[in-house]
Amino acid sequence: MDLQKDLIKKVRKRERLNQEEGEALYNLDLYTLGELADEIRREKYAKKSYFNINRHINPTNVCADICKFCAYSASRKNPNQYTMSHEEILAIAKNAVANGAKELHIVSAHNPNDGVEWYMGAFRKIRKQFPEVHIKAMTAAEIDFLHRQHGLSYDEVLDAMLEAGVDSMPGGGAEIFDEKVREYLCKGKVTSSQWLEIHRKWHERGKESNATMLFGHIESRAHRIDHMLRLRDLQDETGGFNAFIPLVYQKENNFLKVEQFPTGQEILKTYAISRILLDNIPHIKAYWATSTINLALIAQEFGADDLDGTIEKESIQSAAGAASAQGMKLDDFVAMIKNAGFTPVERDSLYNELKVY
Ligand code: SF4
Question: Averaged over 270-282, what is the pLDDT?
Answer without folding.
Answer: 98
